[in-house]
Write a structure and sequence with these properties.
This protein has helices spanning 18-24, 39-55, 84-96, 114-117, 140-151, 174-189; strands at 12-16, 63-67, 103-107, 129-135, 159-162. The protein has 190 residues and is α/β, with parallel strands linked by helices. It has one domain: TIM Barrel (Alpha-Beta Barrel).
Length: 190
């Protein structure tokens, strides 16, 4: 890619979806053909792979990590009781990856409570930026503002974005969705 795209115009985001879905069910198997593993075995296997992938990204290219609960068949694909798994993944990834991780992105459910966001208190990722996927087009700026206010109880500095990408959104709605993001970003800055 760097032969075609200047490093200044490139950002690499590693999107861990199946890994997060698998980790979120603990010692169980999501599919019967997946290897039987404990949660700790899965965690180590996926973290080893992530470190290898991240090491291939040159230091002059920003690197981000997206902890994804998947959208195949509806979001989230597995129960997401809180951000504990995302915080654990963030802490370990930033500790193990030998290059700078520029940001981590964590999805936020539409109606989080204090218990959902409380694990953010345990983040230990230095100057890696946190982006919370708390913009849900369904409830617009009002819902985003509610989630921003709650998140500010646990983090003093964070960015915001969509809970996931826009690939499954109606293309005719993309302008409205981006407007909600713009308004939510203004609300965060205030």
């Amino acid at each position: 890619m760097l032969e075609v795209i200047p490093a200044d115009d490139l950002l690499i985001q590693l999107d861990l979806a199946w890994e997060v879905v698998d980790l979120s069910i603990g010692d169980e198997q999501y599919f019967p053909w997946w290897p039987e593993s404990t949660l700790d075995q899965k965690f180590d296997r996926y973290m080893t792979g992530l470190v290898q992938l991240a090491s291939a990204v040159p230091e002059n290219v920003p690197l981000g990590l997206h902890w994804c609960y998947g959208t195949w068949g509806g979001w989230p694909m597995t129960e997401m009781p809180n951000l504990e798994l995302c915080v654990r993944l963030s802490n370990e990834a930033v500790k193990r990856i030998k290059r700078h991780v520029d940001y981590v992105h964590m999805p936020v459910v539409p109606n989080p409570d204090d218990a959902f966001l409380a694990p953010l208190r345990n983040l230990n990722i230095g100057d890696t930026r946190v982006f919370l996927g708390l913009v849900h087009p369904q409830d617009g700026l009002e819902g985003a503002q509610r989630r921003i206010d709650l998140a500010k109880k646990y983090l003093t500095d964070f960015g915001i974005g969509a809970v996931c990408g826009f690939g499954r959104e109606n293309p005719r709605e993309l302008g409205n969705i981006l407007d909600v993001h713009k308004e939510a970003a203004r609300a965060l800055a205030n």
